[in-house]
Amino acid sequence: MSKGKLKIFLGYAAGTGKTYQMLTEAQDLKARGVDVVIGYFEPHARVETIAKTEGLEFVPRLRLEHRGSAFEDMDTDAVIARNPQVAVVDEFAHANVPGSTRLKRWQDVMLILEAGIDVLTSLNIQHIESLNDQVWHVTGVRVRETVPDWLLGEAAEVVMVDVTPRALLHRMERGVVYSPEKARAALENFFTETNLSALRELAMRQTAHQIEERRTAEPAPAPQSPTPVAIIPRSHESLMLWLTPHPATAMLIRRGRRVADYLGCPCTAAFAESSAAQLEDHVNFCRLLRIEVQAVPGVDPSRALAAYARARGVTQIYVTRHTPDLTKLVNQVRDMQVTIVSERLRNS
Amino acid sequence: MIPKRPDPDALLRQIQTGGRLKIFLGYASNAGKSDRMFDEATRRKARGQDIVVALYPSTSGSVDQSSLPGASALEMVPIDQIPTRQPAVCLIDQLAHRNPPGSPNPHRWEDALALTGQGINVVGALNLQHIAEHQDAVERITGRRAADSVPLSFIHTADEIVLVDILPERSNLPPDQISQLRELALLVAADVVESQLQHYLDDHDIHQSWGTQERMLVCITPGGNARPMLESAARAAERFHGHMLAVTVRQPDLPRPAEETLRGYLDYARRLGAEVHVIEGKDPVGAIIAFAREHRITQLFAGHTRQPRWRFWATSSADRLIQGSEGMDVRLFPHVVYP
User: A44, A301, B91, B141: least CB-packed within 10 angstroms?
Assistant: First the structure.
């Protein structure tokens, strides 16, 4: 049995119309005789979106009890048992309710795909892990529900669902997106026209990148390049992230992952064995983002890591400004590039 | 009658006080763009907005009532009667379309501008292959060139653009062409959003860099080997669809060979697509940091050199650069003596 195909409807905020467009597609598929079901749908009391589910089959939700409270979530087993051709699963980045078999909805989606069922799902740009710092920088909001970047690579298609920030703000004000109290809080923080514009631009560029990744042919011509650009010599690159116990290392990991993905080059990580005990979280985070991690023994950490990088054919070492012995390292690895990643801070 | 198009400056002033222009941008014909536009129009009408569709004589082109899916529920008004009818919103499909001889304006997009000048909001639709500045690129992808076009500046004039990124169930275009067109349309839209956002921030005196587009800056000195840095930055700019700049701090009394080396680097930077700047500053590191901030740089490329004459770029300078470059990645290149 071949794996199902994943299609992601990418938006830049709640209320951009991802679910609406996804359901429109589900209706089109049904009209063509495709067996479509709704595995999970979050109505958010949005009348126009709810109307789009009319005539589509719902797989009943699973009811869970956790510490005396009742929760509902997708019944993954029931979706797989129903075995449709296509399942609609809203909110790809959703964290499952406590007590669920799996932590994240995307893990459930992977199971459905493995059962040979195609999945249509929705995702916002701020849920992409490697953009977490940038999203915080733009909005001041630290998004907790994230998906690792490689998941987007699993999708057969990523399409952008666009709406103008102005139209989105009107929807918010009309109470289409959130309840009035929630809308007021959102309008004050996340939903300003400039924040939304910045997120929207990120979503457009991310979708363009996803499209380019799926194609073996040349990248699309750069917009507005009037003069032909000289041929840029190709070169092999390989990134190595130097993990330290400093909290800024999480940002280093996200940034390194993102740059390596865009450059299309390998990304690994290493740390001094002596600091292993304080690095468990960072190491796990690397693994989640599919970055191979290696502990390097040695009395002089910067010398040992430089030697290790050299032996591995690394061209760029990624560090934070808080890396101990940074100046020493920079001097020691004069045959390699050192990239110092610094935090994106907020002015306000 | 709709009036003739006024001069651009006057027009710009009018637009600020006049009607709003909203454009639906598609990556190809038959990719759902007009559907999206009419879908929105229908919903606006349901909310009570006075919205009409501009009707063009069918002899002038393909558009008549039957070819506008979803438009039948909307009032159709001949284009020359729109100013008298004074709707709140007027829909114009296929903005690049040429008007028949004798019309007040040569193209529909100019009708759109004339109407916004009269305080009527216009919602229109347009495809990537009709943007004049991108027609070469589209022709490289599809082998075809659309006869009519609109200038990119028209799109930048719009108050809002909406990108329609819908995959058609069936298409005449091969998948690889669709993929390249979609990517280009997304990047064009991202650039419009970026420039509108920047204008807004500038207008409101907000000095904030959000790094939504990656911007690379290569610091060039005559002492180090700038070529590998320029090539790396150019590759990164290409892969990120970002923007590349190169900067050098002017040094008085530079010996002739060093000056020639420097000129060679700056020429190479230009050939690789960089925007090149020569800046002044007694404190080169400080000048570069200030320049990088002003130009919203996200990745700064610098090299080491130990040649005594250009000592300012020694390790202590790298330290200062790292400490001063908050919000940017600093990529330090190994010192290689240029042969």
Answer: A44
